[in-house]
Amino acid sequence: MKKIKVVAMILAVLTMLFVLGRIGWYEGHYYKDGTILSVKGTTVSVIDEDDNIWEFYGTGYTEGTQVRLTIDNNHTDLEIYDDSIDNITIIK
Question: pTM to 2 decimals?
Answer without folding.
Answer: 0.67
